[in-house]
Amino acid sequence: MSPFPQKAEGTANVTSITAPSVRSAAVPLVVVIVAGCIIAAIGNGIRTSFGLFTLPMTADLGMSREAYGMAMAIQNLAWGITQPFAGAFADRYGTARTVAVGAVIYALGVVLMAYSQTSMMLNLTAGVITGVGIAICSFSVVMQAFGRSVPAEKRSFIFGIATAASSFGQFAFAPIGQGFINAFGWQTALVYLGAILLLVVPLSAALRGRTEAAPGQADMPFFTALRKAWKFRSYRLLVTGFFVCGFHLAFINVHMPAFLVQCGLTPEVGSWSIAVIGLFNIAGSLLSGYLGGRVPKQILLASIYLSRAVAIGLFMLFPVTEVTAYLFAGAMGLLWLSTVPPTAGLVSVFFGARYMGMLYGIAFLSHQIGSFVGVWLGGYVFDLTGSYNLVWYLGILLGLASAAVHLPIREMAAPLFRPASLQPAQ
After folding, report:
1. Which architecture does CATH list for 220-415?
2. DSSP state string for 315-370
């Protein structure tokens, strides 16, 4: 029987490629999911708290917003560049050891960030080291373990659960991070956050195992699989559209707290706005995972990007107050990581679980290039004009463009990933 569903080209919905076999000792599914969700919450929660350090660090170290933004931009780019290789490593050698190594690197980067006195050091510690660590223990790698452990028809919902867990981390760590800063100062706060990251190491044991190729399908080298995947037009469109998601998230996460202070609000409003995004994203991610199994994923993605453009436009239209800040945070929270379940789901539909870590990692690289541009451009435009408005307006245009890019995507398996014996005769 073919590992690909036999369905006519152009059909809107298909089930994914049959799950390949798994090389691992038996671990109860509930243990895998709970451990993976805690890892996702810790990793994403600490990462999304870095925007809270913008004002105290730049003030104390005499740095410009652009310098701090550059370090965060390098972090996102290092994360994106590393992600496909982290995914490929986990595909081949196992999720547990990958996540454990990543957690140690991530913790090291955060702790060294506390002792970075120059922009060059910050680029290395908060940028390169932390970015590499985030990639290796990110929820993208966690989703690989989920993807190989559950039936294809339930993957979208499980991906939603993983994304919701990472969002809960954002909700939890925003006030925790601000509390640490207020009580101990920003340097000690970073050390404490680095120590918390080490909890990921023992939790990673529950994710042991790796994904095997489907019967009749030989393993392909990294660049061979990537070359075949890139020939699939729907995958290219998906990768292109994901750039905009990264632009929105990174700009808002890093610069919104400072933007709200510039508008006359307190730093606490900024931290709670980030927390509200995380809280509402729990619902948004779960809803997205649920809908991703019931409506065409490309339509769902186009709707999310269009809604983001509308939300940003309304935020710019009205005066910025505590009420409008929290309303905007709630709206963006519903749309925040809701792109991840259908995006990961489409990659799974296109290529199956065997190459999901690597090929979702390529899509995520596009996301992180968008993150790099969003974070850096926010700081650059502020230093140049004294305002973030140009970047907000650019975010509206990019949201509209991404909605248009996703519409032509076709939810179907990529024929080049069928076993050679099942390829159509030439």
Report:
1. Up-down Bundle (1.20)
2. HHHS---HHHHHHHHHHHHHHSSTTHHHHHHHHHHHH-STTHHHHHHHHHHHHHHH
Position of tokens 């999304």? 48
Measured CA to CA, the distance from residue 72 to residue 30 in angstroms comes to: 35
Architecture of domain 27-210: Up-down Bundle (1.20)
pLDDT at 368 over 90: no
User: Domain ranges in the chain?
Assistant: 27-210, 220-415
- CA-to-CA distance for 19 and 98, rounded, in angstroms? 21
Secondary structure of 195-231 in HEC code, one letter for each residue: HHHCCHHHHHHHHCCEECCCCCCCCCCHHHHHHHHHC
Instruction: Give CA torsion, residues 301, 305, 306, 307, to 10 deg.
Output: 100
Does the pLDDT of residue 256 top 50, yes or no? yes
The pLDDT tens digits of the residues spanning 135-184 come to: 998 877 887 777 677 776 677 777 778 878 887 888 888 889 989 999 99
Q: What is the pTM of this model?
A: 0.75
